Amino acid sequence: MSQLRAAITAVNGFVPEDVVTNFDLEKMVDTSDEWIRTRTGIIERRRLKGEGKGSSQMAIPAVQGLLEKRGISPEEIDLLICATVTPDHVFPATSNIICDKIGAKNAWGYDLSAACSGFIYGVETGRRFVESGQYKKVVVVGVDKMSAILDYQDRNTCIIFGDGAGAILLEPTEEEFGIMDSILHADGSGIDYLHQKAGGSAYPPTEETVANRQHFVYQEGKTVFKFAVTNMADVSYNIMERNNLSSDDVNWLVPHQANKRIIDATANRMGLPSERVMLNIQRYGNTTAGTIPLCLWDYEKQLKKGDNLVLAAFGGGFTWGAIYVKWAYDPS
Ligand code: UT7
Q: Is 39's pLDDT higher than 60?
């Protein structure tokens, strides 16, 4: 029997309506549209507004649309993995909430925390369930409501991030398509440079943690930038090398959208021209676990069966990695 692979058979995304432009941010912090555009590539990002609305509010429509596109019912989902660092609650898992709201009565699931690498960690995990032969329909949704943990007084962080969700369906195939290879890494010493200090069990919420603004994202941008440029480029190059892929063989780089300069450096290392690099940072900013599936959603119509994709990310943890995907379907 030939090897069972996990193929991506559908993709969908969701971003909230509310747009926050660089000019809007100029009114909140000491920054400028010009600085943000040239240093990051971002022009605008989305923000989920409304009391009591968490990440699930974006993941639910993303997954519902995914099922509609594939023409399957929620009861057919076996497993739903939700990659997020902004879960609706500390517990229960946002995955459980999504499954309940969409009627995925036969699914089990869990949340996966790997920050900006959350989606690729989720794909690697989901793929293994499919390859085991026991699971036929696995949903991986990457979602973050970064606006919930952003300090709109901190120009180092509030200009970068946005809210959004993207989802894929993984199904088994015996053909030579799907998730072909992956290289993933983690280095927990990165905590010093990128974290949300309070709200977990180490520093539970107190009046002091709130007053000290410790429930917001802290990032030492320059340091993270250096790690990101080197590691995302290296791992993307390494996965090409391991799979004997030349620059001409790679149809698309699907990079995490943290900073256009990091994306350009990665593409350069891989020898790819910008026409083969997915980019939507200008519209959505950095949606953390949402960036890669949102790119796939935006570019889906340009993807052809057999295309070679390299998904690559770097983020909090530190976590980073790359996944080689052979696209499994033509545009409908
Ligand atoms: O997705 C998860 C992983 N995260 C990342 O990959 C993000 C990695 N880091 C970055 O993308 C970049 O480091 C940032 C976009 C966060 C910052 O860009 P940078 O080019 O590294 O800027 P910097 O922090 O070195 O600051 C350069 C200057 C400083 O002024 P001086 O000291 O040169 O006078 C900052 O104070 O720019 C200033 N600055 C700003 N100016 C206007 C910093 N933030 C801003 C701002 N608006 N928002």
A: yes
Q: What is the pLDDT of residue 2?
A: 73
Contacts of 179 (CB under 8 A, 6+ apart): 5, 6, 7, 8, 123, 124, 127, 170, 323, 324, 325
Specify which residues 181 forms β-bridges with: 324
pTM for this predicted structure: 0.97
Q: What is the pLDDT of residues 53-104, one digit of tens each?
A: 999 999 999 999 999 999 999 999 999 999 999 999 999 999 999 999 999 9
Ligand 1 surroundings by CB, under 6 angstroms = 31, 35, 39-40, 116, 155-156, 159-160, 221-222, 224-225, 228, 258-259, 262, 286, 314-315
Q: CA angle 210-58-216, nearest 5°?
A: 20
Tokens representing 226 are 């250096």
Tell me the β-bridge partners of 50: none
Tokens linked to 92:
């229960």
Q: Helices marked H in 31-183 — which ranges?
A: 33-40, 56-70, 94-102, 118-131
Distance CA 297, CA 47 (A): 19
At 132-175, the pLDDT tens digits run: 999 999 999 999 999 999 999 999 999 999 999 999 999 999 99
> Closest residue (by CA) to atom 25 of ligand 1?
222
Secondary structure of residue 192 in the 3-state scheme: helix
146: Cβ–Cβ under 8 A, 6 or more apart, which residues? 86, 161, 162, 163, 217, 286, 287, 288
What is the set of active-site residues?
A: 116, 256, 286
Q: Are 143 and 16 in contact, with CB atoms under 8 Å apart?
A: no
- Per DSSP, helices labelled H in 146-289 are 207-211, 221-242, 260-270, 281-284
Q: Which domains, and CATH codes, for the chain?
A: 5-176 (3.40.47.10), 180-326 (3.40.47.10)
Question: In this structure, is the dihedral angle defined by the CA atoms of residues 223, 228, 229 and 231, taken in order, positive or negative?
Answer: positive
DSSP state of 109: E
